[in-house]
Amino acid sequence: MNAVAQGHTASTSTSTQPQPAAQPTAEALLQVRGVSLEYRTPERVVRATHQVSFEVDPADRFVLLGPSGCGKSTLLKAVAGFIRPSEGEIRLAGHQVTEPGPDRIVVFQEFDQLPPWKTVIENVMFPLLASRTLKRPEALERARYYLEKVGLSAFADAYPHTLSGGMKARVAIARALAMQPKILLMDEPFAALDALTRRKMQEELLELWEEVRFTLLFVTHSIEEALVVGNRILLLSPHPGRVRAEINSHQYDLKSLGGVGFQQTAQRIHRLLFDEGEAGPVEQDLNFQDIRIAY
Question: Which has the higher per-residue pLDDT, 7 or 138?
Answer without folding.
Answer: 138
